[in-house]
Design a protein that fits this description.
The protein is of the alpha/beta class. Helices cover 54% and strands 13% of the residues. It has 13 helices and eight strands. The longest helix is centred in the middle third of the chain and has 33 residues. The chain is globular and about 80 Å long. 25% of the residues are buried.
């Protein structure tokens, strides 16, 4: 028989919704979109369409990571079709393009995909994803706890009671429980809030135990130990970074990790002058918030505390060296920026960006040789 003819690639951009899919198809080597349609989001129709296309072409599909997460990608791979998940915050957009239209989204996605202009996301395995959702759940409960505390504070103040010392200590909580308000309904409101707060605090500490167990498991322990060697990172913050980033080695440079975390300055370059703006805030906000919180210690004198000494003993010399260097560098850099008159927030953001460089170096260094 004759040689099998090499199939051309059909690039498919998919705008995914729970009810419908809008697709656009562009065949390799052609200029125009060859097909654009909207179909019901059910497996039968999708599979039928993909099979029809794959008779003639090699199918390469992509869609934006959204509410659906990676389920659709896993489904496509199970059916034997190549499917990429695209990072939504990294899709090039024309300035001033404010129209939202599924059709145009799909066509635009297909064009960029065929030109290789999109950043694909490495989907975590299902186990990694479930561990990430535990960590995210812990973070969102903490947010809820914060807002309940604020509600209690303002409610008690509105009744004319003020606590003069630091809040949420055991003494403060005992004082709250013992308050007598002016009527039964107000008393009930306070009791509801305090009950809710107690529930949240209990759930948070229960999740902390689960996360600690995962961090001690043999898959996560080596990475957690390395990250904990840094001043300002504990088990939870290490697990946030590990579960959100999944694989540090997929970032070829520290800058690409900084971009993923939205910590690089945005650019405003019209005309000859290049002007850096505020950070892009694209990418992962959970990691970014955590890092900016973690570098708060950099203002203090760089000393190796008892706890840090213990953490440094848990890692190899090369990793310990990176962690110590990092501590001195961040402190020096913070004060250099402060002396220049930079605001505290700007200085912290700048050193959080440097911190990412050290984290990248720590997590991508070759494994130490076994002795």
């Amino acid at each position: 028989g004759g040689q099998p003819v090499e199939k051309k690639i059909a690039y498919i951009g998919i705008d995914y919704h729970s009810e419908t899919l809008s697709l656009a198809v562009k065949v390799e080597g052609t200029k125009d979109i060859s097909d654009a349609l909207t179909m019901k989001n059910n497996d039968k129709s999708i599979l039928k369409y993909m099979k029809k296309l794959s008779k003639e072409f090699e199918v390469r599909a992509c869609y934006e990571a959204s509410c659906n997460g990676y389920t659709f990608q896993r489904k496509m791979e199970n059916w034997g079709f190549h499917c990429d998940v695209i990072a939504p915050s990294l899709i090039p957009k024309k300035p001033g393009d404010k129209r939202k239209n599924d059709y145009r989204d799909a066509i635009n996605l297909t064009r960029l995909y065929a030109n290789g202009q999109l950043t694909t996301v490495h989907p975590p395995t299902e186990e990694q994803e479930s561990i990430r959702s535990i960590v995210r759940c812990r973070l969102s409960l903490k947010e809820n706890e914060k807002s309940v505390k604020l509600q209690i504070n303002s409610f008690v103040l509105s009744h004319g009671f003020r606590w003069p010392h630091s809040k949420w200590t055991l003494k403060h909580r005992a004082w709250l429980s013992a308050l007598t308000l002016r009527d039964d309904f107000s008393q009930q409101v306070l009791a509801e809030h305090l009950g809710h707060l107690e529930y949240l605090s209990a759930r948070i500490s229960s999740l902390d135990n689960v996360i600690k167990e995962i961090a001690d498991s043999e898959i996560y322990a080596p990475s957690v130990k390395k990250l904990k060697a840094f001043k300002g990172l504990d088990i939870l913050s290490a697990m946030i970074l590990i579960t959100e980033i999944t694989d540090f080695r997929r970032f070829p440079t520290p800058k690409s990790l900084m971009a993923f975390l939205g910590l690089i300055p945005s650019e405003n370059s019209s005309g000859p002058k290049k002007k850096g703006g505020p950070i892009t805030k694209a990418g992962n906000h959970r990691c970014r918030t955590q890092l900016i919180e973690s570098v708060q210690h950099a203002m203090k004198k760089p000393m190796i505390s008892y706890k840090m000494k213990h953490n440094l003993e848990q890692v190899d010399p090369a990793s310990a060296n990176i962690a110590i260097k990092c501590m001195h560098r961040l402190n020096k850099r913070f004060w250099a920026l402060a002396m220049k008159g930079k605001s505290r927030n700007k200085a912290l953001t700048a050193i959080a960006r440097e911190f990412v460089g050290f984290i990248w170096a720590m997590m991508t260094q070759p494994e130490p040789a076994a002795i």
